[in-house]
Design brief:
Layout (H helix, E strand, L loop, with lengths): L4 E3 L4 H13 L5 E4 L11 E4 L2 H5 L6 E4 L27 E6 L2 H10 L5 E3 L6 H4 L7 E7 L17 H17 L3 E4 L6 H8 L1 H6 L1 E3 L3 H7 E6 L3 H8 L4 E4 L23 E3 L2 H6 L20 H13 L1
Parallel strand pairs: 1-2, 1-3, 3-4, 4-5, 5-6, 7-8, 7-10, 8-9, 10-11, 11-12
Helix pairs in contact: 1-11
Length: 311
């Protein structure tokens, strides 16, 4: 009899990446959906999408699904690395679901005895299949990552505070140029969400969209600092404005956002003044993306891999 597969997601964006795989599994393999958890010990395999859920279930065998595009940082201390692809302290993980070969290589280097599957991004299947996301090329979304300076790596800083003094002017200029403006925040960036919700910001013409699904559905251009949504936009052929921060080191190459993705489409800016002067209608086109596949079948590939792990 096959081992059942349970699901737990302590963050809503973790669930976004897990649920498509869960739904693609054969019904007889689906165990219990524990919501935010924690999951009880029941002999099932647990599918998670973040190290925090690995850590709080040390006695479960775990399938680990990347909840983004697999960004990692080459000079992270070992105590912090578990949160990023290729990190340590994943003793109970039995397999990794990866967006591309680079991420799979990091896990294989760390755990050569643990299988990996390169599937693309299951969360994006409906957009890659053309089932949703009839975006407006004149709608722009603005977002920032939460500040992760606890890592000690400068590239994990949020650029929100750096661009904040220019934000009103940026929104006003975009509105006056005829752009529809969506505002978004990483689920952990409550300060940014609260900023976007202010009546005076809303009155300027920036509509807060809580879910990144709404951003993918509607926006034709993305302005952001460091987030997997940038990779998602590239995979949809939509340009990105890459907001750099003074602490981002140009002589340190982590891969991904630093500095591969920005070469694939859109434009980089280093200051608020540069962003104010940028013409979003003249951005360089997208020439590639970081996912191994963008064919709408990532969930099926991931589900097949997970099923094979337990049968």
């Amino acid at each position: 009899m096959p081992t059942l597969i349970d699901l737990v997601a302590s963050e809503p964006h973790y669930r976004d990446h897990l649920l498509p795989i869960w739904n693609a599994l054969p019904a007889e393999l689906r165990g219990i959906d524990w919501g935010g958890g924690p999951a009880e010990r029941n002999g099932h395999v647990l599918m998670v999408a973040g190290y925090s859920d690995v850590k709080r279930h040390p006695h479960h065998p775990v399938v680990y699904v990347e909840h983004g595009a697999g960004q990692s940082y080459i000079d992270l201390d070992i105590a912090v690395r578990p949160f990023y692809s290729g990190g340590g302290q994943h003793r109970n993980v039995i397999g990794y679901v990866c967006p591309n070969d680079e991420v799979a290589g990091r896990w294989q280097s760390r755990y050569p005895d643990k299988p990996t599957a390169v599937v693309g991004c299951p969360r994006l299947d409906p957009w890659h299949a053309g089932d949703r996301g009839e975006c407006d090329p004149r709608t722009v979304a603005i977002t920032f990552h939460w500040d992760a300076q606890f890592t000690g790596v400068p590239e994990t800083a949020s650029a929100f505070g750096y661009y904040l003094p220019h934000m009103v002017g940026i929104i006003e200029r975009l509105r006056n140029k005829g752009w529809t403006i969506l505002a978004h925040a990483h689920p952990r960036h409550t300060a940014l969400a609260n900023f976007w919700r202010q009546p005076e910001i809303k009155d300027l013409g920036a509509t807060f969209v809580e879910s990144s699904d709404g951003v993918l559905d509607r926006a034709g251009v993305l302005i952001a600092d460091n987030t997997s949504v940038q990779a998602e936009f590239l995979s949809l052929g939509r340009p990105v404005v890459w907001l750099n921060h003074p602490s981002y080191r140009r002589d340190v190459s982590h891969g991904g956002r630093f500095w591969q993705w920005p070469t694939l489409g859109g434009a980089q800016v280093d200051t608020g003044a540069e962003l104010l002067a940028l013409d979003l209608s003249q951005l360089p086109p997208v020439t590639g993306h970081p996912y191994a596949y963008a064919d709408g079948r990532a969930s099926q590939r991931a589900a097949q891999f997970v099923a094979e792990l337990v049968t």
